[in-house]
Amino acid sequence: METYGCQMNKADSASIRGLLIERGFTDAEDITKADVVIINTCVVREHAENRVYARLGYFRHIKERINPALKVVLTGCLTRFNRAKLEEEYEIDLIADVYSQAELADCIANDSYATQSLYRTTNYKFKPSELDPDNPIRAYVSITHGCDNWCSYCIVPAVRGTMISRPADDIIDEVKRLCDLGVKEITLLGQNVNSYGTDIGGMKFVDLLERIDKTTSGQWIRFMTSHPKDFSKTLADAVIDLQSLCGHVHLPLQSGSNRILSLMGRSYSREDYLEKIGYLRSRKPDFPLSTDIIVGFADETDAEYEETASMLRTIRFEDAYLYHYSERKGSRAAEKGLPCDEATGRERLAKIIALQRSLSADSLSQCIGTTMSVLIESKARDGGMIGRSRENRMVVVPEGKIGDIVTVTAKEIKGHTLIA
Ligand code: SF4
User: Measured in angstroms, how far is the CA atom of residue 140 from the centroid of ligand 1?
Assistant: First the structure.
């Protein structure tokens, strides 16, 4: 199984793997001996899409020269983005969209590779989470699929469809099951988790978090990704007050310029964002945050770039995923013909990476001498064990077992890691 892209795709791959294990399959050691290869695709960036086409060429070569029995199955976001091209130009034994995991597993198990592709339009059923055998203390639970926000640079709504919320009882049963299996940390997943429930009425994301908090006993809960327009004061209160919730939020800002935010279709202003963070930090002054930023969007000016840089300095994010804008075919920005100057975007990206590095180093240095809880997840390379704190910081601790939650004091920093 090859997986590209985000954590949602990784969770989907784990579910497909679980469905196949239930049907008697095991992981192949080597592609030359495999019966089937499943490629779970991503199209958020053109690079990820092109990589899949290259892999399809590679697997065709394997089929022709080495393993003629090999079946090639394609799933993930590319299946809805470029269906005609996939069906006409590539030799794929089965194409199944992100909503057809069970049917995909049945086709493979029955050796009935479809003459038609599998595309589901209604009645999507969320699959049980599968634990990663290499890291069984951590689990991912999808609570929504799809997105209705249509940010102008993004094609997720086009490829994953409208947002579907998973029924709350189903999520609670899943959380209980994972806790019983000994999982220590659960991340709730969705393109826009804090819109949860708007399509089914009744329950809001905060209500769901409260129910989950009552279900857990000592497990840590994280969620991603949140949209600033739906990040309410009630949610900020829940993040701080509910015991199971880890003290860290990832809240994509994208730009500090109101004109660019409006062109991006983000539905909030710089002032709205600052107000939300202001409330969170009024309750907990050092509350750690991370974000996503796109520089060089459309005809962003130097002054508008500076507005983004000033937001980084003001908010002091601990971490940021930083990109320069590149046009995505099928997005609203591309349809509208918004300009894309990649050379300027690259220059600004280099500048903002340097800025964020110094801010991240500064934030980490404030942690020296502080005490934190760390969930140990593996052996550290240079001795000791490594894990993440509740605040999502990587920490090396002197000793402990995988799955232990230990309380330590940070003594020094090595790269992006605290050493206790
Ligand atoms: S919120 Fe915007 S960026 Fe995120 S998946 Fe939806 S459309 Fe894309």
Answer: 19
CATH code at position 26: 3.40.50.12160
Q: Could you report the per-residue pLDDT of 91-129, keeping only the tens digit for each? A: 888 888 888 888 889 889 988 876 566 666 556 678 788
Distance 153 CA to ligand 1 centre (A): 9
**H or E element, residue 102:** helix 101-109
Contact indicator for 390, 246 with CB cutoff of 8 Å: yes
Q: Which residue has the higher pLDDT, 107 or 252?
A: 252
The phi-psi region of residue 265 (left if phi > 0; otherwise alpha if psi is between -120 and 50; otherwise beta) is left
CATH number of the domain residue 144 falls in: 3.80.30.20
User: Would you say the C-alpha torsion 171, 121, 160, 59 has a positive or negative sign?
Assistant: positive
380: CATH:
2.40.50.140
Q: Which residues pair with 284 in a beta bridge?
A: none
Longest dimension (CA), the chain: 64
Ligand 1 atom nearest to CA at 154: 8
Ligand 1 atom nearest to 266, measured from its CA: 2
DSSP secondary structure code for residue 321 in this structure: E
Q: Are 31 and 60 in contact (CB under 8 A)?
A: no
Residues lining ligand 1, judged by CB closer than 6 Å? 147, 149-151, 154, 156-157, 191-192, 227
Range scoring the smallest mean pLDDT among 94-98, 139-143, 192-196: 94-98
